[in-house]
Design a protein that fits this description.
This is Small ribosomal subunit protein bS6. This protein is α+β, with helices and mostly antiparallel strands. It has helices at 16-32, 69-81, 102-111, 138-145; strands spanning 3-11, 36-52, 55-66, 85-93. 31% of the residues lie in helices and 30% in strands.
């Protein structure tokens, strides 16, 4: 039987439990036709790249399906009729990976941020090196030294 990855986006007005219920309906319909759901991931409420049916956010769900093509066509027809679904996409794949998807893997990396280094010393200091006085900054030195770079011909 062919393998598919199916991603659906539900409106942000619905709850996570309602999104899970929609996924359960999809799973029941696929399993009723002799297929199986091999993978199921809830990606959470995420921002959309642009407004879709007046929504700026949506609940994302990924399903890894093993089903006959006729079952996929019927599932997509049912999702078109559901008002809570903003978009969906079904792609045929060679295999369904058991590891977490890239979306969930990246989510885990964001939460494990550690120490990012020392903070800058003050408002005007860069944090590199020791404390410098206010007038020691490069822009004030250039202005105070004059047009010839601070050297006078009489000094030699």
């Amino acid at each position: 039987m062919p393998l598919y990855e199916h991603v659906l986006i539900a409106r942000n007005d619905v709850t996570q439990q309602q999104v899970e219920a929609i996924a359960d309906l999809v799973a029941a319909q696929v399993e009723g036709d002799g297929g199986a759901v091999r993978k199921r991931e809830y990606w959470g409420l995420r921002s959309l790249a642009y407004r879709v049916k007046k929504n700026r956010k949506g609940h994302y769900m990924l399903l890894g399906l093993e089903a006959p093509p006729a079952s996929i066509v019927e599932m997509e027809r049912q999702l078109n009729l559901n008002e809570d679904i903003l978009r969906f996409m079904t792609i045929r794949v060679d295999e369904i990976d058991d590891a977490p998807s890239a979306i969930l893997a990246r989510k885990g990396d964001d939460r494990e941020r550690g120490f990012r280094g020392p903070k800058p010393a003050g408002r005007f200091d860069s944090g590199r090196g020791g404390k410098r006085g206010y007038d020691d900054r490069e822009e004030f030195r250039a202005r105070d030294e004059g047009p010839r770079g601070g050297r006078d011909l009489n000094d030699e």
